[in-house]
Give the backbone structure.
Amino acid sequence: MGSKTFTVTEASFEEDVLKSEMPVLIDFWAEWCAPCRMIAPLVEQLAEKYDGKLRVGKLDADTNQNILIQYGIMGIPTLMLFKNGKVAERITGYMPLPVLEPRIARHLD
């Protein structure tokens, strides 16, 4: 089964996230971050479950510092849900799927 997530960079952020017709969940992560690795499979599950209602992107915090600065992200993992180009939900740190999913699902029509 292929991944339903896509890679986001500073160069593609405006087009892929801010101008998206569909809500976009961005997972801000880094290779060295253990909680990021723990939350990654949950992010994949959300991408799978809400395919067609939600786009899920992954943004490497180490190589896209300007986006982190722009949104004041101090810690990772941080998940941000963008809807119509605006931040609709912001989640910092690991949380289990039963806690995480409702915070995302309530923004999806």
